[in-house]
Write a structure and sequence with these properties.
Largest sheet of chain C: 8 strands, mixed
Protein name (chain B): ATP-binding cassette domain-containing protein
Strand content of chain B: 15-25%
Oligomer: heterotrimer
Order of helices and strands of chain B: EEEHEEHEHHHEHEHEEHHHHEEHH
Number of domains of chain B: 2
Strand order of the largest sheet of chain C: 6-7-8-3-9-10-12-11
Number of helices of chain C: 11
Distance between the termini of chain B: 42 Å
Keywords (chain B): ATP-binding, Nucleotide-binding, Transport
Largest interface: B-C, 55 and 54 residues
Strand content of chain C: 15-25%
CATH architecture of the largest domain in chain C: 3-Layer(aba) Sandwich
GO molecular function (chain B): ATP binding
Mean pLDDT of chain B: 87
Organism (chain B): Paractinoplanes lichenicola
CATH class of the largest domain in chain B: Alpha Beta
Strand order of the largest sheet of chain B: 6-7-8-3-9-10-12-11
Order of helices and strands of chain C: EEEHEEHEHHHHHEHEHEEHHEE
Largest sheet of chain B: 8 strands, mixed
Structural class of chain B: alpha/beta
Structural class of chain C: alpha/beta
Number of domains of chain C: 2
Helix content of chain C: 25-40%
Pfam families (chain B): ABC_tran (PF00005), oligo_HPY (PF08352)
Radius of gyration of chain B: 21 Å
Number of strands of chain B: 12
Radius of gyration of chain C: 21 Å
Chains: A mainly alpha, B alpha/beta, C alpha/beta
Mean pLDDT of chain C: 88
Shape of chain B: globular
CATH superfamily of the largest domain in chain B: P-loop containing nucleotide triphosphate hydrolases
CATH class of the largest domain in chain C: Alpha Beta
Shape of chain C: globular
Chain lengths: 318, 363, 327
């Protein structure tokens, strides 16, 4: 480097340059994930989605504290007014009135959040776990195992998801909430497996994996440190979006009468499908509220999922 | 020649073109590298120049066994590299490292600089004095120690390339294959990286194989230059010799096509414009591969493929039947009609993609 | 009167959740009829944004474009989008870096060339196709009659760029804007395309704005060269002056930092320190000051103006490289 340059400057001008440059450059040590997190917090869509989900989660977790009554208890003051063509609306102590069996509808809605989220989240997580496992094996090992797993998922994907779920539930001798969870989980397995395998393969061809190979890094380290973490983002986004679908699928199964036959269990899909439909003429609120709740939760997960996708997209950085 | 570190003997890398839905059938081959012999002297820089699709990147990766050569020999300091496999190959990688074109895509975005650099050390059980090694390596590529806990996206292009170089250096290799090390960088940054490579060679006694499409850059940093066309070397000479006396018609065309940032030179230059495009490496022309675009081509060029031969005492090598006649002016150039070249997926494969890599997780 | 007169053009990106970024900062230059003008600079200097702003191709949302772009005394920035479309393609042609993404992948080449003629010159499909054949021939595409039915993916990169040039020149525009037209191509193909561009421009009298990062490309082609740094013109000169005696330390440094094929090897390359992002905001002084070897106190603290030089160019520097005085 030539003489002169910065050293030729007077001290205060030199300091001014440093000051101006440091103003433009960011502080260091921020990983991609944290960077994405920052953008997520600043995105109003994400915040709205997160608030909706959080709200329902709080309600679900603290249902016994939030709900005014026991959801399975039948109240005499409600049952006495029950007839085939009249179901009592809001009365003192029962803000949403009664359900067709004289139980407190508001409490059932609140406990329904618990049941519905439980089914949706668990179904997604199980589907995610199995799907990631299969996808990772297919993507990392390759060969005939890859072909086998992929053909299997092809077959599953060829069937319409609801039909597949219905078949699975029908196969079970006695329907419980677990059959619903398993059925919805299985439907999601091929989606996660394919997604992960696809991005694992893309990672396998990427320059940084090639670089790791050139360094002489061991195979399993390459898979676990480079290929898998970089492939997971797509799956995580998909999982958030799947929560919404899983809740809808579970509700649909209940709606079709393939869910848990226990009439005491409060679940939105069941409430919508059985009471909501049967008494729609009499009291449409019985259908409106569960439907609205399902839509709202699904919307929350979708908003959050889309925002996470946006935040993780490197094109949107800065 | 002096002490040879690496030599390639008729190295070939052919990629099968697969087709079929359930059962892959091989319907042809992309002749990405088709018989290249060269040797690189210890402490020297060998520059490999050629246009996209000529197989220069594949050659570099074939040498490092990052793609599996189809045939031919690789000798590194007396070791037959092609005979190595599994754990022994992995350990051998320490001695030959690679620097990539795109420093962004070749650095795992999720790893901090420290874990990127430590990874190689761990793989070779060298983490004992890791922190001292990291510091001295960072220092030698001109990065501050504070870079260690930052992430690749927080650096500029030039700094990222320094990280890429540091990652290669930290293992103390003897050979570095640099594949287009500056072409993704801004003009004002290219000189920094070129100078850095120069300095490192001087202080560490490194041997380089530099692969690039930019003849001016190659000429600046190389001692010996090999010109590749469609999977084969067409000419090899000392860096000055190649510019002073290009023998192969393709080298001449390449030299005359490189723009020079000087209007006076540009105005007076005579351009030797090539007709048409590079033929597909999946379906190369018979005989001399350059004949479809060569203004000196003769009948013989279509029937027999010229070998790379030593031209004279200078050691310059050329693969042309008529190099002497063209040089003396005995053979006059004629007009060439451009043949239309269909770009097909095959040539793209050779150009950018390196297909399935055999020593990656496949049972 | 100049054909194109860009006055004080500024583009500010306003993206949600980020600070506004001034990509182009008061750029002015003129193009005379038939003249070839170069805009040279590195990534992020604003050269491509300038061309997009001239053509009105920047999305209106999130971008603030100010200043004037006078073409034939009409301010293109004030035109309604539908009126601007009449100018584009007819009076101003444009070629981009990536010929594949600039062509419609599902339409045969002939139709794509013909469409421009139909749109702007009211030709019938038949007449337009006949003319298209001639245009493809003129840009050196072999066997043009058959190529009319080809799709873009069936052509090589060089041929695609030729086709794009044919489309851009179809209506004999008076101005052609070429944004890095050869960057994606190999050197031998680049030489073909540059030679073709030069011939076409010379023959038709079309003015050309050449946008590139490659000083070599500019050296053989442009009459006047504008060097951009961080969104501003830092030096403007006739090409012989610019390359023989660059005055701005940035131009000088760039020229010295590229290895030249025709100069003896062994010389260490001059390097400009730091990176393009190491700059200070223009109102605070010269953006290049932190990287400059000739920086003095005057470079920091006040705006450095672009001042005309006695050679008909312009310079934005407080301490320019001195001219060599003949002994």
């Amino acid at each position: 480097m030539t003489s002169g340059g910065i050293s030729a400057l007077s001290d205060h001008k030199r300091r001014r340059i440093d000051e101006l440059i440091s103003r433009t450059s960011e502080t260091g040590g921020v990983s991609l994930l944290r960077d994405a997190g920052r953008r997520l917090v600043r995105n109003p869509t994400a915040v709205v989605g997160a608030v909706i989900i959080l709200l329902f989660l709080v309600i679900a977790i603290f249902a016994p504290l939030v709900a005014p009554h026991d959801p399975v208890q039948r109240f005499p003051e409600l049952t006495q007014n029950l007839t085939v063509d009249s179901i009592p609306g809001a009365t003192a102590g029962h803000p949403l009135g009664s359900d067709p069996l004289g139980r407190d509808f508001a409490s059932r809605m609140i406990f329904g959040a618990r049941q519905t989220l439980f089914v949706g989240v668990l179904a997604t997580l199980i589907g995610l776990l199995i799907g990631v496992l299969l996808g990772a094996i297919a993507g990392a090992v390759g060969g005939w195992l890859d072909v086998l797993i992929m053909r299997l998922t092809d077959v599953m994907l060829a069937l319409p998801s609801l039909l597949l779920a219905i078949t699975l539930v029908a196969l079970a001798s006695r329907s419980t909430q677990w059959t619903v969870i398993i059925a919805v989980a299985v439907v999601n397995v091929p989606i996660f497996a394919r997604l992960l395998r696809g991005s694992m393969l893309a990672q396998r061809e990427s320059d940084h994996v090639l670089a790791a190979r050139a360094l002489g890094v061991k195979r399993h380290t390459i898979v676990l440190r480079h290929m898998l973490p970089n492939s997971l983002t797509a799956v995580i986004v998909q999982a958030t979006l799947t929560f919404a679908v899983a809740i809808l699928d579970a509700a649909a199964l209940s709606f079709l009468g393939l869910g848990d036959p226990d009439i005491n269990r409060a679940e939105w899909g069941l409430m919508l499908g059985v009471d909501g439909v049967r008494y729609f003429e009499v009291r449409p609120e019985l259908a409106y509220f569960p439907a609205l709740a399902i839509i709202l939760v699904a919307l929350g997960f979708t908003l959050l999922g889309e925002s996470i996708r946006e935040a993780l997209d490197p094109k949107n950085r800065r | 020649m002096t002490d040879t570190l690496v030599s390639l003997d008729n190295l070939k890398v052919h990629f099968p073109i697969k087709s079929g839905l359930l059962f892959d059938r091989t319907v042809g081959h992309v002749y990405a590298v088709d018989g290249v012999s060269l040797s690189i002297a210890r402490g020297q820089t060998y520059g490999l120049v050629g246009e996209s699709g000529c197989g220069k990147s594949t050659l570099g990766r074939g040498l490092l066994r990052l793609v599996e050569p189809t045939a031919g020999g690789i000798t590194f300091d007396g070791t037959d590299v092609r005979a190595l496999s599994g754990e022994r190959l992995r350990q051998f990688r320490r001695r030959m490292q690679m620097v990539f074109q795109d420093p962004m895509s070749s650095l795992d975005p999720r790893q901090s600089v420290e874990s990127l650099l430590v990874e190689g050390l761990k793989a070779h059980g060298l983490q004992a004095d890791a922190s001292a090694r990291l510091r001295s390596t960072l220092d030698s590529v001109g990065l501050p120690v504070s870079a260690l806990n930052k992430y690749p996206h927080e650096f500029s292009g030039g700094q990222r390339q320094r990280i890429g170089i540091a990652r290669a250096l930290v293992l103390g290799p003897e050979l570095i294959v640099a594949d287009e090390p500056v072409s993704a960088l801004d003009v004002s940054i290219q000189a920094q990286v070129v100078n850095l490579l120069d300095d490192l060679q001087e202080s560490l006694g490194l041997t380089y194989l530099v692969i690039a499409h930019d003849l001016a850059v190659i000429r600046h940093i190389s001692d010996t230059i090999g010109v590749m066309y469609l999977g084969a070397l067409v000419e090899e000479a000392g860096a000055d010799q190649l510019y002073d006396r290009p023998l192969h018609p393709y080298t001449r065309a390449l030299l005359s096509a490189v723009p020079i940032p000087d209007p006076q030179v540009e105005d007076q230059r005579e351009r030797m414009l090539l007709a048409g495009d590079l033929p597909s490496p999946a379906n190369p022309p018979s005989g001399c591969r350059f004949r479809t675009r060569c203004p000196w081509s003769q009948e013989r060029c279509a029937s027999s493929r010229p070998e790379l031969r030593v031209f004279d005492a200078s050691g310059q090598r050329v693969a042309c039947h008529y190099a002497e006649q063209i040089l003396s002016g005995e053979l006059r150039p004629h007009e060439v009609h451009a043949e239309l070249v269909r770009p097909d997926s095959d040539s793209d494969v050779a150009g950018e993609l390196i297909p399935t890599q055999p020593d990656l997780p496949t049972p | 009167m100049p054909l194109l007169d860009v006055r004080d053009l500024s583009v500010v990106f306003n993206r949600r959740g980020t600070k506004p970024v001034t990509a182009v900062d008061g750029v002015s230059f003129t193009v005379e009829p038939g003249q070839t003008v170069g805009l040279v600079g590195e990534s992020g200097c604003g050269k491509s944004v300038t061309s997009l702003a001239i053509m009105g191709l920047l999305p209106r949302r999130g971008n603030k474009v100010t200043g004037e772009v006078r073409f034939d005394d009409t301010d293109l920035l004030k035109l309604r989008p539908q009126d601007l479309r009449d100018w584009r393609g007819r009076d101003i042609g444009m070629i981009f870096q990536d010929p594949l993404s600039s062509l419609n992948p599902v339409l045969p080449l002939g139709i794509q060339v013909a469409e421009v003629l139909e749109r702007h010159q009211g030709r019938t499909r038949q007449a337009a196709l006949r003319e298209a054949r001639g245009l493809l021939d003129a840009v050196g595409i072999p066997d043009p009659q058959r190529r009319l039915k080809d799709y873009p993916h069936q052509l090589s990169g060089g041929m695609r760029q030729r086709a794009l040039i044919a489309i851009a020149l179809a209506c004999k525009p008076r101005l052609l804007i070429a944004d890095e037209p050869t960057t994606a191509l190999d050197v031998t193909i680049q030489a073909q395309i540059l030679t073709l561009l030069k011939e076409l421009v010379d023959d038709s009298g079309t003015a050309l704005v050449m946008i590139t990062h490659d000083l070599g490309v500019v050296a053989g082609l442009c009459d006047t060269v504008n060097v951009l740094y961080a969104g501003k013109v830092v030096e403007r000169a006739y090409r012989h002056h610019l390359f023989a005696e660059p005055r701005h330390p940035y131009t000088d440094g760039l020229l010295q930092s590229v290895p030249r094929l025709d100069v003896d090897r062994g010389r260490r390359l001059h390097q400009i320190r730091g990176s393009v992002s190491d700059n200070i905001p223009w109102p605070e002084g010269c953006a290049f000051a932190p990287r400059c070897d000739r920086v003095i106190d005057d470079c920091i603290g006040s705006v450095v103006p672009l001042e005309p030089t006695f050679r008909g160019g312009a310079l934005r520097c407080a301490n320019p490289v001195p001219l060599e005085v003949p002994a």
